[in-house]
């Protein structure tokens, strides 16, 4: 008779950022020590448009990174008025990081977002800073001249 094994719960693989076990020639480096906690990497966060959802991660030295999973608002700087306006995000128009990110609504640094006041370019890294900052590049109804 065959033994029936129950499927184990799915365990996420550890993201290790230490040295590879393989040499350029294909041979193996023999481990001289175990993996260290500071060599662990973090899971990639894809910030999208939606109700605000954040997570606080502890980093080296006791500092924290606020992971932003979703947000509905952005701090948009208007260069003509020299003011920062809290604008609602309507959607993602372009994303130079990946051609599929715009379709999926993923916001990264450099992404072009449509806001309630016009088009804006994201200037920070929202998934690591916990907030979306952007610069207005085109107001609704008129093109903005940035010199």
Describe this protein's structure.
With 147 residues, the protein is mainly β. The protein has a domain at 47-143: Structural Genomics Hypothetical 15.5 Kd Protein In mrcA-pckA Intergenic Region, Chain A (Roll). It has helices at 101-104, 126-129; strands spanning 47-49, 53-58, 64-71, 73-78, 83-94, 106-107, 112-115, 118-122, 133-139, 142-143. A hairpin with a 4-residue loop joins strand 4 (73-78) and strand 5.
What are its keywords?
5-stranded mixed beta barrel, 37% strand, 147 residues, Structural Genomics Hypothetical 15.5 Kd Protein In mrcA-pckA Intergenic Region, Chain A, mainly beta, elongated, 4-stranded mixed beta sheet
CATH architecture of the domain at 47-143: Roll
Task: Point out poorly predicted stretches.
Answer: none
Which percent range describes the beta-strand content? Answer: 35-45%
Radius of gyration: 21 Å
Q: Mean pLDDT, nearest integer?
A: 86
CATH class assignment of the domain at 47-143:
Alpha Beta
CATH topology of the domain at 47-143: Structural Genomics Hypothetical 15.5 Kd Protein In mrcA-pckA Intergenic Region, Chain A
Outline of the structure:
With 147 residues, the protein is mostly beta strands. The chain has helices spanning 101-104, 126-129, and strands at 47-49, 53-58, 64-71, 73-78, 83-94, 106-107, 112-115, 118-122, 133-139, 142-143.
Write the layout of secondary structure elements.
Elements: E1 47-49, E2 53-58, E3 64-71, E4 73-78, E5 83-94, H1 101-104, E6 106-107, E7 112-115, E8 118-122, H2 126-129, E9 133-139, E10 142-143
Parallel strand pairs: 1-3, 4-9
Antiparallel strand pairs: 1-6, 2-3, 4-5, 5-7, 7-8, 8-9, 9-10
